[in-house]
Design brief:
By secondary structure, the protein is α/β, with parallel strands linked by helices. The protein contains 13 helices and 8 strands. Helix 3 packs parallel to helix 13.
Amino acid sequence: MKEDQMSPTLSARTKYAELSGRKLAYRVIGKGAPLILCNRFRGILDSWDPAFIDKLSGQYQVILFDYSGVGLSTGVLPLKIATVAEDVKDLAAYLKLSHFILGGWSYGGAVAQTFAVNHPDMVSLLILIGTGPAGANDHQLSPLFLETASHVVNDLKDFEILFFEPASAFSRQKAKESFDRIALRKKDLDIPVPPAVWSRYSYGAADYRTDANNTREKLSNLGIPVLALCGDHDISFPVENWYNLSGKMANLFINVYPSAGHAPQDQYPFLSFELIHAFIRQQRK
């Protein structure tokens, strides 16, 4: 049996939401309660680890998409994070979803949090992976992340630095396994994000840090349950910034993975699914 026949994620076909003035590329994997996932910096439909998405899709209808102006989606990636977040609303409306679980990885976590505070009636739960709270934070992104992320093509060594813990032999091995799984998709491929678009992410990230939207305070007050999954050595979004909200944000649950970096869901795909699934079930009781 071919790999794409065994993996729902690898066999999922790309579809397009035809919207006014643009189209959003998306894939739907699995059945169940809808779970929309917002992607990382330079992330496209093919960037998600199929082991992680396959597990989620056994319980949920997982919806992956490209932001406007990214990958196979048309239009332009907005400079304001709140405008980027409107892609979620437009895609949900196209799919006739009025209420859903929302997740985000890295930059996608900023998008997800912004969307949740702007449209709280649409979001039941927030799943935040390798990301951080809005506004000014004490612990900053490492220059090593920016230097490595600036390579036009990220090889396995880059993958280790960006998303895993290079100091750990275990994490390096898991990086290779995840890297190889992601590379298994051979057809209906997405388009890598060109360097000309990268700076637009930076503007969105800077906008998120200024927090003119007051996302940090609003999220604390909304009461939407938030699960943060973090590596203990994330050089992009240090987990310590979530610690600063412990005791101040009553709806925040933090899980920290040892010897892990910016993509704990890639290093621990099955554990990540179990934590997410248990969190969702608990919140629905």
